[in-house]
Design brief:
Layout: E1 8-11, E2 17-20, E3 28-31, H1 34-55
Antiparallel strand pairs: 1-2, 2-3
Length: about 80
């Protein structure tokens, strides 16, 4: 089965990127660069899903979630 997830990548002051998965609370990882951060996110999501399956819990995903970035100029 395929699942879709939005991930947030935040550049860290000390270098690298922190990754969070909003639809999977507590699913957080990091990487030294964008490529590694994305790979680490895939691994973290897979482990998270395995844990949910073992517990018999529903597996959420972002298939029906839309995202839009809004840029506002505030005076």
């Amino acid at each position: 089965m395929n699942y879709n997830y939005k991930i947030h990548l935040q550049k860290e002051e000390e270098g690298g990127f922190m990754v969070t998965v909003p639809s999977l609370p507590g699913c957080i990882t990091q990487g030294d660069d964008l490529e590694e951060a994305i790979e680490m996110a895939k691994e973290a999501i897979q482990l998270y899903i395995e844990e949910l399956k073992e517990r018999g819990e529903k597996i959420p995903d972002d298939s029906n979630t839309f995202e839009y970035s809004l840029n506002l100029a505030v005076a």
